[in-house]
Each structure stands twice: as structure tokens, then as C-alpha cells.
Design a protein that fits this description.
Number of strands: 10
Number of domains: 3
Strand content: 5-15%
Distance between the termini: 40 Å
Helix content: 40-55%
């Protein structure tokens, strides 16, 4: 199989790579991945494949992304090499289909034809999927975190660090100095995320500048200016808040926490838009990567009564089964698109077409989006 060098674009066949010690015959650049050295055909991919994944997740090197976002993208693309619904039992059934007539011809013994109905049973059982009744059923990752980290380390050793990939958010204990002119100003909008990782992603991609919008995490990121920005937000009586979170027990509790916590917007008559992720948005889509964990199921049982009352019976059942979807399963481009659309819809006269009032009263109004982007 030919492999193109990511540095000069020269195509190298197996003999070229072998004769040059795993390097390009033209520019002598090492190959990171060699399909001839991989036993499992499902994990065979080239340097060009890995480079294309980085190019796509970063929108042609224009957007910052997290390692987890790259992990999800690679897992999705590699898993496509297996036909949907195909598994080991189906492979075993097919093997029986082949062996039964072959053994009959070789040995002339009809006993081997018993393999045929056995193969049919195994194949059909492997094809059966019990109905879930809920949009997506939980998926397992096709690749492991260890495999991904090994590939990423190898890639960066040979091709230099991936420039647009973000490190883990730093915790800066000392507050940054902010000018009095800036602190006198206030934002009309604020995006509050349920994780520092997503807040860091938005800030790194200048979402706050392009939308004249504060971006904070409920966990206190960015630490150096968090208290200052939050104080600036409290001065604006017309502030609009946009919540962005995982579809998880902790995530769906975010808007309740923002409205009732004295550290946030308790007793403030403001509008909060819950843009997602919400379980109802998962049900409406077939393309989201649903995961499941016992810890998530336990957290669902501990959600506040007010949060449980805001969810449908189907949503509660889904969460209590341990299901969740991470925001990092989406590309940076998609997350920014969701926020841009949510802000635009909240300012539109036709906002009611896509944003539904789910709570209202002395504490202001809470809107929820029916779809994710």
C-alpha cells in the first residue's frame, strides 16, 4: 500500500519505506504510522489520515481544540471501518456459513452441515438489537485512551507539537490586575459553561471578543479575572445568560444552580437561555455519541427536586440509566455555531419558534432550546 509523505507529498510504497528505514524516499522525513506494521486492519491508517483529522478538527488550522475532541473524531472515523451493527458474533456466523459446505466437500460427511443452522442462529443473534425507545443507545469507544495518547505522542515527536491543541486549563491563584476603565464597563451577555475546558476553548477561539460576551465556567475559570468579571455582570440589570453544558446530571443542573446560588444570580430578575445539551436534544438526533456510567446514574438520583420537575419522564429515565453526552464530542466549529445560533435566536422576534419557556416567575425567565444547533 502506498503512503504519502505529509512533508513533501511523495507517494512511497512498501519497498520504498522498507529500503529507507521507514522514511520518505524523497525528503527522508520519518513516517509515524505504517499500515504494514499493524495487524488489526481496522486500526490501519496513514500519516495523511491523522493529519486530515487534525486539519478538520481545527477547521483548517483556524480553531483551537482539545485533545478529547480529537480523540472523539479519530474514534468516530476509525469505527466507520466496521459496518454498522457488525460484531464478533456475526463474524463467527459467517465463518460457519463458509466452513459447512467446505467441510462437506472435503470429508463427504453430512454431519458438518449441522454447522449451517448453527451459523444462522449465531448470525441472527449477533444482529439483534433490543429496542431502547430513546434516540441513541450507549456506545463504547472503538479505540482506547492509551492508544490515542501513544499515537499523539509519536506524532508530536516527529512532526512537532500540534499548534492548535489546547493544554489543560491552568489554575492561576493570583488575580490579574484589571484597569478601572474596564471594570466600569459591563457585558450584555454571558456564557456560563459547566466545565473549565469548554470555557477555555471558547476564550482561546476569541468567542468573547467576537460576541462582546463574557465567558466563565461555573467552576471559576478563568481564575485570574473570574471575580472581577462576575462583579461586572451583576451591574447590568438587562444581562442575558446562556448556559452551555454536558447532557449529564451535573450539566442539566447548571441553570438551577445559576438561578439559586448567592454566588451567581440568586434573586436576579434576568433571563437564562439553556442552549444544551439536554436529553430531549439527544432524543431528536441520531448522530450524538451517548456514553453510560454508574457514577452518572448515581448523580441523577441526587438531582434537586426543581431540576427533576423541569425534565420529562423520558429524560429522567435516560439520565437515571447513567447516560450522558459530553460537549467535547463535538467539534469547536459546531459548539461555536450552537452558541452563535442561540444568541441570534434569543434576539429574534421569532425566538419562540426554537426557544421554549420552561420556567418563569420572580426569578426571571428560563428558556430551553429544542435542538442543539
Amino acid at each position: 500500500m502506498g503512503m504519502k509523505c505529509v512533508r513533501c507529498g511523495t507517494d512511497n510504497n512498501l519497498k520504498d519505506r522498507t529500503d529507507n528505514g521507514g522514511r520518505c524516499k524523497n525528503c527522508n522525513h520519518p513516517f509515524v504510522f505504517d499500515t504494514s506494521a499493524v495487524i488489526d486492519s481496522r486500526l490501519k491508517f496513514t500519516d495523511a489520515f491523522f493529519a486530515k483529522a487534525i486539519e478538520d478538527i481545527s477547521a483548517n488550522n483556524t480553531l483551537y481544540f482539545t485533545p478529547v475532541q480529537l480523540f472523539y473524531l479519530l474514534d468516530r472515523r476509525l469505527s466507520r471501518k466496521i459496518p454498522e451493527g457488525w460484531n464478533g458474533l456475526q463474524s463467527l456466523g459467517c465463518l460457519a456459513f463458509v466452513l459447512a459446505p467446505l467441510c462437506l466437500v472435503i470429508t463427504n460427511s453430512p454431519i458438518y452441515m449441522a454447522l449451517l443452522p448453527i451459523g444462522i442462529i449465531i448470525f441472527m443473534y449477533g444482529s439483534y438489537k433490543p429496542p431502547t425507545g430513546k434516540g441513541n443507545s450507549p456506545n463504547n469507544f472503538f479505540i482506547t485512551q492509551y492508544q490515542f495518547q501513544y499515537w499523539l505522542n509519536r506524532w508530536q515527536e516527529i512532526n512537532n507539537p500540534v499548534g492548535k491543541m489546547l493544554p489543560a486549563p491552568r489554575e492561576e491563584r493570583l488575580p490579574a490586575e484589571v484597569s478601572t476603565e474596564l471594570t466600569a464597563y459591563s457585558f450584555d451577555r454571558a456564557v456560563i459553561c459547566d466545565s473549565a475546558v469548554i470555557a477555555q476553548l471558547l476564550i482561546a477561539n476569541n468567542f468573547h471578543f467576537e460576541n462582546n460576551c463574557a465567558v466563565l465556567s461555573v467552576t471559576g475559570y478563568p481564575q485570574s479575572i473570574f471575580s472581577t468579571v462576575l462583579e461586572m455582570l451583576t451591574r447590568n440589570p438587562d444581562l442575558k445568560v446562556y448556559a452551555l453544558h454536558d447532557a449529564s446530571p451535573r450539566g442539566v443542573t447548571l441553570t438551577h444552580h445559576l438561578r439559586t446560588s448567592p454566588n451567581w444570580f440568586q434573586n436576579r430578575n434576568l433571563i437564562i437561555y439553556d442552549l444544551g445539551l439536554l436529553p430531549r436534544q439527544i432524543f431528536a438526533s441520531r448522530n450524538m455519541f451517548v456514553r453510560a456510567a454508574e457514577e452518572s446514574a448515581r448523580e441523577a438520583q441526587e438531582m434537586p427536586v426543581e431540576v427533576r420537575q423541569s425534565l420529562s419522564a423520558a429524560e429522567l429515565e435516560w439520565l437515571e440509566a447513567g447516560n450522558f453526552v459530553e460537549l467535547e464530542s463535538f467539534t469547536p466549529q459546531k459548539l461555536i455555531q450552537v452558541l452563535n445560533q442561540g444568541i441570534a435566536q434569543s434576539q429574534s422576534a421569532n425566538a419562540g419558534d426554537s426557544l421554549v419557556v420552561i420556567d418563569g416567575g420572580d426569578g426571571g425567565y428560563l428558556y430551553a432550546a429544542d435542538s442543539f444547533g
